Amino acid sequence: MKLSRLFIDTDLDRTEEVEYLISRTGLDPEPVKDSAPVYDLINHAADPVSLAKKILYITQNRGAVVRECPGTSHYTCCDYTILHTGTFCTMDCSYCILQAYFHPPVLQYFAGLDSLSHSLDEVFSRQKILRIGTGEYTDSLIWEPVSRMPGFLVEKFAGQNRSVLELKTKTVNTDGLLDLDHKGKTILAWSVNTPEVIRSEERGTAALAARLATARTCAEKGYKLAFHFDPLVLYEGCESAYERVIQSIFTHVDPSDVVWISIGTFRFMPQLKPVIASRFPDSIIPYGEFILGLDNKMRYFKPLRIALYRRLTKILREIAPGVLVYYCMEDQEVWEKTMGFFPGKPGALGHLLDAAAADRCGLDKSLL
Amino acid sequence: MQAFQIDQIPLSAIDVADKGFRITRADDDVSALAASMTGAGLLVPPLVLARDQGFVPVSGFRRLAAAASLDWESIACRIAASTSEKTLAKQAVAENAFQRELSPGEQVRAAGLLGRHMDAREIADASLAIFNTRLNPGFITHLIRIHSLPHPAIDLLEAGNLSIKAAKTLTGFDTSTAAAFLSLFSKVRVSSSKQMEIMTWAREISVREKLPVADLCAGKEIAALLETGGPTAKNAGHKDLAAAGNLLRAYLFQRRFPALDQAKKSAAGYLQTLKLPRGVTMTLPEHFESMMYSLSMNFKTPEELQTQLKALAELPGQEEFASLVNR
């Protein structure tokens, strides 16, 4: 984490968690009464997105800690639950939606393990299985080298059997987690892509080989794994390149260690396109054959999506037939033409994933 | 208040080739104005600036041209009281702006003229007095930038081949890209939104294919289709610029979105051969993203509806229909 400035709320309790975070950044914290000075500083930069990646703001989460994934209309959602522990990211992927999602983006760390713990106790008391992740508005493990939070969450989830934690990342920051007594309730998940896409579009992330080597190490420590092929990027030769990524995954890890694999082609809010064009002028990623989808996001023309999905689902079935493969935000036609079925009813896809989590992570199956 | 001295000046003493203050287009037809000056006389004398030798026009370029076309030997002129270029520039613009709404090309020339002496903020602050309307500094800045576009940008603005919005976009491009688009727009006439589409698609093709926009625009394919945009039957010898524009858009769309273009053409082919009952229209899903096709029908009598429904019942059995829907 290469930070240049650190801001902290003046009214924030300087707990051990906070002091540890400050000490790990190596920066002198600048106290602020509220977020306004941080937002102003970033908003007035020539490139707010780039500046925001270098400024950490330690604050409290003043909104909901546990949220349902917003999903999108017309496409099937996996009914994920988001644990809102921070925002934005220090890595710099050209396609990252967070560049256009926040106005402006601010790298926030929401301190307060006690309140987080209370929120999770309430979640764990529910009579239902939840799949909970911190990787919706940030990368789950960019924080691991500087913060107590990832380790705290792993241990917190280890103490119950109704929910599973998914830590989704493009880093290899797992050292502090390896020896924890996770009791199988944490899934370490990697967003994966082809080496070409990682090299050209995912600045500051770990190489594919490093991600997979780390996944193997984690599996050896008993962690269950997940992989997310999202976003799939269409380019000449991409089908074979993605097939090689799949083959590479399963030369590193055993299919029985993988709880699920998600697939989704690149899709984006139209307002992201000028951001990419401006910040990454050499990137060709926004210039694919996109159409405006039913949810007003740009998506690849459907036959192109289906063609790639067919190739990938075929090889996944061959190599890892027991692993649950699902689409993130796709529709009936795509499911039926590539998977041969459609989890059409509301919650049906979520139920499949819950069942996989219960089976692989030892959750209470009576809640299914 | 400033009073102008009016003198009768020989036309030969006025350097009409000096267009430093001109904001109207140079090749305007002045025959109507000449007829008016013959019939009603010169109602408003041109404004000229006295120099050491002779005069230069500040406003009234068309009146001077009309007088020359009428072989007048002299013309009544107002002599500018100020020799300040800034004041004269403001007068040159105001004289036109308070007679009529300035065309896009005139606005650009006016901003370019004023921009030599004032910044955008100062022009905006004085815009009500100069342009007869309030203009904001951002808009003025854009006009000044457009003024610095290569030839024939302003001519294309005047001719309606280039919108202010498209011209504004061009100012963000490098010179060769801007020149390439200007060359294209001199050969087609399309709406502002289509001009934007043409630029967007061409630039995206350029990035996708790692081909400079200038090379794309100068390529054989585009040259050939603009050539065959060709003389229309009605207007032999002149290009049909609108038709050429449509050909250009279709070509760029096909090259930018090859799979979508192919699917649209294929579906259009099936639709054409489909035996839809009279009064029934079939609408395809937008971009083929949804699975929802729709049929709409118009009928006047129950019998007509009955006929349509009977024909519709046979629709799923048609090969073309199956090809269209079972995509």
If you had to describe this structure to a student in words, what would you say it looks like?
The complex is a heterodimer of chains A (368) and B (327). Chain A has 368 residues and is an alpha/beta fold. Chain A has helices at residues 16-25, 36-43, 48-52, 98-101, 113-124, 149-158, 195-201, 208-220, 238-252, 272-279, 302-319, 332-338, 348-361; strands spanning 5-9, 29-32, 55-59, 66-68, 81-83, 86-87, 92-93, 107-110, 130-133, 163-169, 186-191, 202-203, 224-232, 258-265, 267-268, 290-292, 298-300, 324-327. In chain A, the strands form four sheets. In chain A, strands 4-5-9-10-11-13-14-18 form an eight-stranded mixed beta sheet, sandwiched between helices. In chain A, a hairpin with a 5-residue loop joins strand 16 (290-292) and strand 17 (298-300). The longest helix of chain A is centred in the C-terminal third of the chain and has 18 residues, at 302-319. Chain A is globular and about 55 Å long. Chain B has 327 residues and is of the alpha+beta class. Helix content of chain B is 53%, strand content 9%. Chain B contains 17 helices and six strands. Chain B has helices spanning 31-40, 61-69, 85-97, 104-115, 120-125, 127-131, 137-147, 153-159, 164-170, 175-185, 192-209, 213-217, 220-228, 241-256, 258-273, 302-313, 319-325; strands spanning 5-10, 47-50, 55-59, 74-79, 280-283, 294-297. In chain B, strand 2 and strand 3 form a beta hairpin. In chain B, helix 1 (31-40) packs across helix 2 (61-69) and helix 11 (192-209) runs parallel beside helix 14. The longest helix of chain B is centred in the middle third of the chain and has 18 residues, at 192-209. Chain B is elongated, with a radius of gyration of 28 Å. The chains are: A alpha/beta (368), B alpha+beta (327). The A-B interface holds A 74, 284, 287, 289, 291-294, 299, 301-304, 331-333 and B 204, 207-208, 257-260, 263, 286-291, 327.
